[in-house]
Write a structure and sequence with these properties.
This protein is an alpha+beta fold and 212 residues long. Helices cover 28% and strands 30% of the residues.
Length: 212
């Protein structure tokens, strides 16, 4: 019960912030928006991959695995991309914490021309972590916090909501349908704000504005 109260208070704080920040952040203009992060509706796609290889790779530097991303278009057509995919992160790759880790999607750049993923190379994706609905709420809340921060400053990572169906190519896992979100690449964010990426202690990536 205490956890639910904390979550409710946090969600309420985010909602209040999102109602307030348009007045604060209305003067901020994104200097170079890309198609992927301009639209606000959720992207709907299927990820077909060897689930065991991706989910169970607990090595320090997980390997990319071949996969396919199948996007469902508004006109009921589909668009397919041959991609590489791997688990990412540290804490969320610990089995006792997340049964489903965050992912990194690696596109073949040429294949993205004239699509919603045009210009994209590697994209981070935040996933649901655990199957319980509470964890889906955590993911939704994390997405809202990113969006609220976007209203305050362009010096923030842009995100895009996604509705994903995960399909195991080996058919050892049932289909999983969950909501997650994509995060702007570090290099793209740094370029967008005329900044540079600094590697700090513990391997954290900090985007800092270049001095005039």
């Amino acid at each position: 019960m205490r956890l639910k109260v904390v979550i409710l208070k946090t969600i309420l704080s985010v909602v209040v912030l999102m109602l307030a920040v348009p007045c604060i952040g209305s003067n901020f203009k994104d200097p170079s928006p890309t198609a992927l992060f301009v639209e606000t509706e959720a992207l709907v796609f299927v990820l077909q991959m060897d689930m065991a290889k991706v989910l169970n790779d607990k090595s320090k530097d997980p390997e990319y695995n071949t996969a396919q991303l199948i996007q469902k278009m508004p006109n009921n057509k589909i668009q397919s991309f041959n991609i590489k995919i791997k688990a990412r992160g540290r804490t969320r790759r610990i089995q006792e914490i997340c049964e489903f880790p965050p992912l990194k999607i690696n596109f073949e750049k040429e294949s993205t021309n004239n699509t919603i993923f045009s210009g994209q190379d590697k994209i981070k994706m935040v996933t649901h972590c655990q199957a319980m609905e509470t964890y889906q709420n955590f993911t939704n809340l994390e997405y809202l916090i990113y969006k609220a921060y976007n209203q305050l400053t362009t010096h923030s990572y842009r995100v895009r909501l996604v509705e994903v169906t995960y399909q195991d190519t080996k058919q050892n896992y049932p289909d999983i349908v969950k909501t997650g979100f994509l995060i702007e690449d570090d290099d793209e964010m740094a370029s967008r704000i005329s900044g540079e990426i600094s590697t700090k202690k513990y391997g954290a990536l900090i985007v800092a504005t270049k001095s005039p």
